[in-house]
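User: I'm writing a short report section on ligand binding and want a predicted complex to refer to. Could you take this sequence and calcium ion and write out the structure as tokens? A short remark afterwards would be nice.
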Amino acid sequence: MRSYWGDLVIDPTGKYVLTSSYDYANGRLIILRAEDANKLEQYDWIDECDYAGDIVFSPDGAQAYAGFGGNPGYKPYSKGRIIIVDMNTFDYYKYGLDGPRSLAFSNCQKLYAYAKINHNWGTRIGIVELIPNCPTDPLGSLMIKKFYCATNQYYDVNVHPLVSSRESIFFKQGSDCMKETAPEYATWVDWNKPCCWCCRKQCRGDINCASFFGKPVTLCDLDIFRDAFNKPDESLRQHPLLICADLNHEPFFGKRVTLSDLEIFKQYFNKPVELVPCCDLDEDCILTPEDKYNYWTD
Ligand SMILES: [Ca+2]
Ligand SMILES: [Ca+2]
Ligand SMILES: [Ca+2]
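Assistant: Sure. The structure tokens for the complex follow:
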């Protein structure tokens, strides 16, 4: 324990207690067994941080994210980080980000963090939306997907032509992305409302709802597709991402990811973003009342 507290939380299984604390230019994250407070892991010398912030868990409880803030330009505590811990192995990864004092997860597996980022026009303070670079490797590096600036200006750091503002974060917390009138609504509910089915290019093969070098359907998506292909429902339910590979939202002989999904995937694999249409009716990426989505989740 260091002089100043950050956060103290219990993981969703109730088995572990995580605490963060800090002192002059260094932080500490400790994992204890909840039952007897025996120390299991200690991540020390999270160096050059200015304070310890929130600790949150991914919706499936598999990873913990601990924010350690930094103050850019003020050495020796100029480096902020999010420490990502695999809650099964206790392996960890440090992701560099200035100022992650507050962290929160949305039900769409997106991590929001208070942050400072350097923009063309100087340092900006606001909320960043972070997603794993590749969801099949959740301990890998994160990627800033969007930045909601405190002045309500909005910078989309990805290629999506999204028009939005901070309000969309609050909207997304409260309502379903899929309309009840959608033909696949009952199926979507049965599969625990996978957010990926409302990503703008999921129906074309963007399984992880992220582009890589301007291409929506890439090797990262292929990895997930391969794991899901021709699998029975029991196997698909083992990992929340696998149902994202059902591109047409239709089953075939009791399987959800079949040849017709593969045909779609092949058509858009490695194509630049402008050749991969959105999933709304007229494919212009702008949702209207005729569309089956309330909002896009990517
Ligand atoms: Ca993708
Ligand atoms: Ca299918
Ligand atoms: Ca449209």
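A remark for your report: The pocket of calcium ion (ligand 1) is lined by residues 206, 208, 210-211, 216-218, 220-221 (CB under 6 Å). The longest helix spans residues 219-228.
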